[in-house]
Amino acid sequence: MRRIAAAVLLLCLLAGTAGGIQIVEFCPDPYQPGDPDEYLVLEGTGILDGYVLSDGEGGYRFPPGTRIDGRLVVARSGPAFEQSHGYLPDFEIEERTPAVPDVIPNGNLLMANRADELLFYHKTTLVQQIAWPGDVCAREGQVHYLDDGVWDPRPLFIGQSRLKPQSFEGVTVTAFAAPDCSYEVFSAAVAAAEREILVNVYEFTDEKMTEDLISARKRGAAVTILLEGGPVGGVSPEGRAVAGALNRSGIPVLSMATTDAAHAKYRYDHAKYLVIDGSTVLLGSENFKPGGYPSAGLQGNRGWGILLEDPALAAYFREVFLFDSAGGDIVPLEGTAAELYTPWAPDYTVEFAPCRAEGARVTPVLSPDTSVLILDLIEGAEESIAIEQAYITNETACEFNPYLAAAIDASRRGVAVRVLLDSAWFNTEGDADNDEMVGIINRIAAAEGLPLEARIADLEANNLDKIHNKGVIVDDRAVLVSSINWNANSPAFNREAGVIVEHPDVAAYYAAVFEDDWDASDGSGANGAREPDRIKIAAAACILIALTGLYLYRRRRA
Questions:
Q1: What Pfam families does this protein's entry cite (predicted)?
Q2: 275 phi and psi, to 5 degrees?
Q3: pTM (2 decimals)?
Q4: HEC sequence for 151-162
């Protein structure tokens, strides 16, 4: 059995517990091979004489008189820990560097990856015992931690942020929808930038958005781009062409990817936001691609976006960006010299202009840190929930997606719930995707007599390329605008960015967009339902033509 590559322990000073300290965090299986970066973190205040950490086979204690005031880090190897975390530990187990003092070992504390236990003693008293599997379920790179008496309230991996819910009052917002006015808002926001633009986006292939950022750089604004280094299918030729153009203009393009120095912080960096001049944030459901931010009057995706003006809120997102764009998993993205181009798109009749409102309450939702706020939003609904998603997938064959389950439960207490899903071929051709999900939801509604309905979007009726939205409206008062897909991966393992905005005018705006999509998808002509009819009609026409031809042929022969 391979031994632990990293172990993290957080010991907190708690009144009333034996010795005043308990174990609240650990990680039995990090990413580095050979366990060079195993470490423990202690937290509390006092002298550590008499305290021993053990796994039942080996352990260690601290040099006499060692005092802890806050946090104290013990690593197996100081240099390995520094490579992963950017700073040296307070103590190390193996003598690797003179810059770090050593603990006093008694045997060798090595926690097994799959099954082991951690024992914490004060003199002869066992303060706490943690076993796995049992108290926690071990996973490579996962940090286990205790929060309000609960282990692992959300998955936490080495290098990830630990954000807490935070709300901002009095925010000025501009709500917008793709394809109607998304590029209009983006272009104006970038044109107003004077000092700094920080961009974090999953994929970037749009020619005109590239030119806007290059223009900002020429005006003197410092522009930095962070992209996902390994999107599904890899970085596209268009994406590398954009990276090349940005780099040639002096704009650094970074990517998040697993390297020899560090494992990627998140499964995917799937966020879609930018921070301008430390005062403005633009975020939404759409990548920086022609379909997400088309020129006015051109077809694209249905997506929601929002511009937020508030220095404190912008500072929050700026800190998130700076945290995510640092570390051994961040490397330059190699671009190409290929020419940029904008693909052809059908015409589109604009229906929705941007909506500006003041005095909003805004709560960031950053996955995986605060994804639970989406559950809180849905569970707090009293009258209505409108959900528009690219797709919804369940956790398992027998377990609903937790957000969908919460919405169905809301309908059971009388809340009117509507769910609208995309009908593009890649979301309807499989045996267990959007059309089957709509069927499941509607069967539950019919069986229980619930105020619950699901529809497949009619893209042709609304002249949309696809539904790429990840939005929720609750009680016509609060709206989720985000990049968070409703699957098992996005809320728990990706870096995602969204906000919950509380303002009646903003809710009314997105409700109007939703109603337009919903009304167009009444089931009489939805793409997902129409394809079989077209096939049948085409087949019947072919049979009729064949029979007519056979009849005429035989008549000529006669």
A1: PLDc_2
A2: -120, 125
A3: 0.88
A4: ECCCCCECCCCC
